[in-house]
Write a sequence for this structure.
């Protein structure tokens, strides 16, 4: 139904609604929800205003008016007295109308945002109503997003809520159909759609408002999940996968004779899950999540052996050269006793060895290829790639994952590994069709990294720690925020400190790794440290991902206040990989904001990745973070919020699964034919690469516990 037929709209306002607010019909008007609510029974005192307040209500009388300024700056200023104190109320437009209709002596209710200007509070263009007009205010009043232009056209909050109220009186609304399956609304006691719409606009109390919001949150997430599941089912029905029926020589020999330590229970469980995926003729798409140091590489290797035992090749892709090199060394050491041929391919691989690799890949004699995104190049052709492993996914986009799939007629099984703690249900939403495995256990004997927060004046203590660890034969990382000195930034730089460190520890070898070095140089330096020839590594955050030197026992991070918590956690994960005591020292300026100090203190209190990311999210505050996070999604969420509505998401997924199980014909139906337009995801519902990155960054966060689920079930 067109909006112009609603009482109080007409042609002109219908155009304004469409153009300024994107409201094209009555349905969209009904779903144009307020973004905030104000308790109408609550009146504020001018004396109680503070700078942070949103819209507030005050009651009082004008005592005087004056016109001030010239030309464009002309304004009408009223002095408003709430019985105790006085504030200015200012109008810049509609002066004539205001002069005629707003008078002294009458009691008014003003509704606006207090602004602090020249030492006093005032209100600019508040909404204004005679206190004796109509009923005494009850319930809550919503605030809608309005455009600048709408405001200039005298289209106010009141105009919009008036129109919505009229829309609720139409036959169209009376007959508005329920948009969720009745079995779902009944089972979960969800508020029916018409009641929910009414309560979104004109709630009488918080309980009704909550119930309405919960309903729409559920609905949005339900249809998204439904579509994701349909997509995943269709895909798994149409894409075949290699069948690895056999556990054979390689796997068994490695497990029984080479593996130097027992697997953790979590590693065993994940291997069983992977094995289960790979024996059924469907392509595996699995996300393996586990905190730094939990032993993902080993799991990856054993999954590769399953492929090799069935006559297939395997590949593992890392986000950096250093990491690829490290994987190569780890895997080579494991491969050697098994007689497995393993090679490394990166952007810096020279032509000759590269030609050999290409040939051996094609004839199948090369069994395991380790590399960077160089593996994705088209000229890299496998004889029969059985499994592709992607380490530290956040540096890779979905598009790249797909490129791995396309290497061969039947796509390889795909295992994506990450240390980012994404809640399971969320990962399913973000990655759509990825199954999730979690390693939630560290190898035994690990001692938590002792984490210190220290200031420049404590450097003596830190130096003593370093010296004593060096004497015990251990290795040290020192991480800097900058490579080169920058006089504008008052930060430590690697370049400047390098010589100083070398002078201070003349009996030890110091290497240096940063992003501006040539790959070969970086590798060489890194190698010195990995082999133990160098005892001190001075670096930037390029070492953040994955590097494994169990003998390293101290991580010193300069200007730690400049790093995010998650990043600090990743860095800290570079030490504490052996069984001995290890230390992470966060060096910071003494003068830091209280918030920053709190953030750094969290690091000293826990080594649990989930807790760290939770704290990160809480401290950075939901506000801007939710903005960026939500904007990274391939679908629009109007009411639901992935950061906070984890429980609803889980429930929505369960319901969607049940519905699909009961109605298999839905899988084949046209995309989203059954979804409401508002919650319809992009049919491909894929994240953009940026979106994915944002989400993964922001998702290290508080995810549940925020929703009072009792409101629904
Ligand atoms: P991440 O999960 O961060 O990639 P790694 O795979 O690099 O962790 O493993 C970290 C260290 O733990 C490695 O030195 C690895 O050999 C060791 N490790 C892995 N699994 C076990 C285990 N079950 N018992 C003891 N050490 C293990
Ligand atoms: Mg790793």
């Amino acid at each position: 139904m067109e909006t112009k037929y609603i009482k109080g709209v007409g042609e002109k306002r219908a155009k304004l609604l469409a153009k300024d607010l994107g409201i094209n019909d009555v349905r969209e008007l009904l779903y144009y929800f307020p973004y905030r609510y104000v308790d109408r029974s609550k009146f504020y005192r001018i004396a109680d205003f503070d700078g942070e307040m949103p819209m507030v209500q005050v009651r009082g009388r004008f005592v005087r008016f004056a016109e001030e300024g010239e030309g464009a700056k002309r304004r009408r200023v009223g002095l408003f007295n709430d019985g105790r104190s006085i504030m200015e109320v200012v109008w810049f437009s509609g002066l004539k109308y205001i002069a005629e209709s707003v008078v002294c002596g009458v009691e008014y209710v003003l509704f606006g945002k207090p602004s602090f200007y020249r030492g006093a509070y005032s209100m600019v263009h508040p909404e204004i109503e005679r206190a004796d007009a109509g009923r005494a205010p009850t319930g809550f009043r919503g605030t809608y997003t309005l455009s600048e232009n709408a405001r200039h056209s005298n289209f106010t909050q009141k105009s919009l809520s008036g129109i919505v109220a009229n829309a609720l009186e139409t036959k169209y609304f009376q007959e508005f159909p329920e948009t969720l399956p009745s079995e779902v609304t009944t089972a979960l006691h969800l508020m029916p759609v018409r009641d929910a719409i009414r309560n979104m606009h004109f709630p009488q109390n918080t309980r009704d408002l909550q119930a309405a919001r919960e309903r729409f949150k559920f609905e949005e997430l339900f249809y998204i999940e439904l579509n994701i599941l349909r997509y995943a089912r269709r895909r798994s029905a149409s894409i075949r996968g290699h069948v690895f029926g056999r556990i054979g020589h390689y796997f068994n020999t490695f497990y029984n004779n080479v593996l130097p330590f027992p697997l953790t229970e979590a590693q065993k469980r994940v291997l069983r899950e992977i094995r289960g995926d790979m024996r059924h003729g469907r392509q595996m798409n699995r996300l393996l999540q586990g905190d730094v140091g939990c032993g993902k590489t080993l799991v990856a290797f054993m999954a590769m052996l399953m492929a090799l035992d069935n006559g297939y090749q395997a590949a593992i892709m890392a986000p950096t050269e250093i990491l690829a090199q490290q994987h190569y060394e780890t895997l080579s050491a494991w491969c050697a006793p098994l007689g497995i041929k393993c090679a490394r391919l990166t952007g810096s691989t020279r032509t000759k060895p590269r030609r050999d690799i290409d040939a051996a890949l094609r004839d199948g004699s090369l069994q395991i290829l380790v590399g960077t995104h160089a593996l994705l190049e088209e000229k890299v052709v496998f004889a029969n790639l059985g499994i592709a492993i992607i380490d530290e996914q956040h540096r890779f986009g979905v598009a790249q994952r797909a490129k791995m799939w396309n290497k061969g007629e039947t796509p390889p099984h795909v295992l994506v590994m990450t240390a980012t703690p994404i809640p399971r249900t969320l990962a399913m939403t973000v990655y759509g069709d990825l199954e999730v495995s979690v390693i939630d256990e560290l190898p035994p004997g690990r001692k938590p990294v002792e984490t210190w927060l220290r200031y420049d004046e404590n450097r003596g203590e830190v130096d003593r720690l370093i010296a004593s660890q060096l004497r015990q034969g251990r290795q040290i990382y020192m991480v800097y925020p900058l490579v080169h000195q920058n006089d504008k930034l008052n930060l430590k730089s690697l370049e400047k400190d390098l010589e100083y460190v070398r002078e201070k520890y003349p009996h030890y070898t110091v290497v240096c790794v940063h992003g501006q070095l040539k790959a070969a140089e970086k590798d060489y330096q890194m190698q010195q440290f990995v082999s133990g020839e160098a005892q001190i590594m001075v670096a930037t955050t390029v070492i953040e991902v994955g590097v494994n030197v169990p003998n390293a026992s101290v991580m010193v991070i300069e200007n730690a206040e400049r790093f995010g918590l998650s990043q600090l956690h990743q860095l800290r994960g570079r030490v504490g990989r052996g069984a001995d005591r290890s230390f992470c020292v966060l060096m910071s300026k003494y003068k830091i904001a209280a918030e920053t100090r709190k953030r750094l203190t969290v690091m000293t209190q826990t080594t649990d990745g989930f807790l760290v990311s939770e704290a990160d999210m809480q401290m950075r505050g939901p506000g801007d973070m939710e903005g960026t996070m939500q904007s990274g999604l391939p679908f629009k969420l109007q009411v639901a919020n992935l950061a906070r509505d984890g429980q609803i998401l889980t429930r929505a997924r369960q319901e969607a699964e049940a519905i699909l199980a009961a109605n298999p014909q839905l899988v084949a139906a046209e995309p989203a034919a059954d979804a409401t337009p508002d919650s319809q995801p992009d049919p491909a519902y894929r994240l953009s690469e940026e979106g994915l990155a944002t989400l993964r960054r922001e998702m290290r966060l508080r995810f549940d516990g925020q929703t009072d689920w009792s409101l629904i079930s």
Remarks:
- Residues 261, 263-264, 267, 290, 292-298, 419, 443, 546, 548, 550, 577 surround adenosine-5'-diphosphate (ligand 1) (CB under 6 Å).
